[in-house]
Amino acid sequence: MTDSPADLRSAFRSGTVTPTAGLAPGFAQTNLIAVPQDWAYDVLLFTQRNPKPCPVLDVGDVGSRETMLAPGADITTDLPLYRVWKDGELADETADVSALWRDDLVAFHIGCSFTFEHPVAAAGVPLRHVEQGSNVPMFVTNRECRPAGRMSGPMVVSMRPVPEHQVSLAAAISARMPAVHGGPVHIGDPAELGIADVAAPDFGDPVNFEPGDVPMFWACGVTPQAAVMASRLPFAITHAPGYMLITDTPDSEYVLEVPDAR
């Protein structure tokens, strides 16, 4: 499969379903949550109050299926897999939501940690889930997000095992990209996040550790889905965890420049 964002979106539109970690290196990926207009302010306020797990990169017009991040894309067909929510419950998981789209929906595109994986990997840090051909493991934590209107819920994190001698490197590279979650929220003991077993993720797939690996946890854009469940939204459409929108936006646009110390 080609790594061109447009070609990948075309493949998804034609029915290809696969996690997007490792695809289209060098281009940003985004989480999706679309909610009825009368919930849009609550979601916007929730993201503003919780920027670490919910960094907003674009918000669509009411009813729009487009995003400036991928001109010409249709957000109802061009992700590999979606989730449909009704009254806070998962109602369906499907590769096409065009027939379910409503004219009152507002789409939020939230930064994704898959975006910083390319520079992390380019620096020589292994990505175990990519090596193993699996989805990244994600966990609901014991850290509550700051509530906003009718929206509340726990923070979700993604986990990557990193060799101990490269932990600081992975942290430093991701910290320069706050628009896609930035640096890790926790390193080490999963129990401090309320995670009982790193081999049993709430979303995604388990990943095998290599000797000397340390678990690193980053805030995750699946957090709004946890809020959908906790807040019992009457209707929402989201990406399926790990199945993102691949945009035409270079990941370099989200890297903060380091000031010249001279």
TrEMBL record:
The keyword Nucleotide-binding does not apply. GO terms for molecular function: lyase activity. The keyword Transferase does not apply. It is an enzyme of class 4 (lyase). Keywords: Lyase. Its EC number is 4.2.1.-. InterPro entries: D-Glu_cyclase, Putative_hydro-lyase, UPF0317. It comes from the Bacteria. Belongs to the D-glutamate cyclase family. This is Putative hydro-lyase RW1_013_00490.
